[in-house]
Amino acid sequence: MTEARRSAGPNGEAHAQHAPGTPCWVSLMVHGLAATQDFYGSLFGWEFQPGPQQLGPYARALLDGYEVAGIGQLPPDRHLPIAWTPYLASDDVDLTAETVRLCGGTIGVGPLDAAEAGRLAIGSDPSGAVFGIWQAAEYLGTALTGVPGTPAWNELLTFESASVAKFYETVFGYEEEPVVSADFDYVSLHVGGRPVAGIHGVGTALPRDRGPHWITYFEVADTDEAVVRLVDLGGHVLKSPRDSAHGRVATVADPEGARFCLIESPR
Q: Where would I find the H helices in the chain?
């Protein structure tokens, strides 16, 4: 069994702040908030409590009392792609947002305060992939990892890795570790010598309707069982369960079309 890692208690006990560039939260904005909560609650065992409402109705997902993700409601007139968005930690969201702009990216939301929890911005890299930036105050981010129902990894799917990796390296200070292969374009992004995210260049295999985008992997106890449950709940299988170097993986989508991966890590 994967070892659980708890960064904070359900009563908000102090814990270490995430190093800049580390994915520290994942969030999903949807049209049907209640139905989406029912879907993920049944799939992952999440419960929900209200969160900051700066961007509209928003709920934090809890697993065993620990906050693991967020789901918010899009305004009825906003027809944005429904997608899980990773938030990358920053010590100064305003400075990071300005660096994003200087490096060819855009900032679509913020920077703005999320009540007393922290300060955020939502931007996109030069290829158009959307990500969040989080400067922690009272709330540091995901408080439990390493068990089923928690985020396990975040990966950028893009046309090619080299140029966009330079963007993230400049903005967030990552160290890069390319995978040397004639037919596999992949770069791991490291913080303090530890891999925290990946960039996968897939060329023409990128879905035409989505363009470059980040995708979140969620830990499950059994990928095949989780896929069956997901389909029963109204989700869709985009790539059937397959074995990889990091575990058994399936690429799926929720009823509103948000793509994500399920991963059963090696025991």
A: 33-44, 93-102, 161-172, 223-232
Q: Which two tokens stand for residue 188?
A: 């791991």
pTM of the complete model: 0.91
Overall CATH class of domain 147-264: alpha beta
Please state which CATH class domain 17-144 belongs to.
Answer: alpha beta
pLDDT in tens, 190-215: 999 999 999 999 998 887 778 999 99
Longest dimension (CA), the chain: 49
pLDDT of 104-153, one tens digit each? 999 999 899 988 889 999 999 999 999 999 999 888 888 899 999 999 99
In 45-184, where do the E strands start and end?
47-50, 58-63, 66-73, 84-89, 106-114, 118-124, 130-136, 144-145, 151-158, 175-179
- Which residue's entry shows tokens 């969201």? 93
Which tokens is 213 given?
């985008």
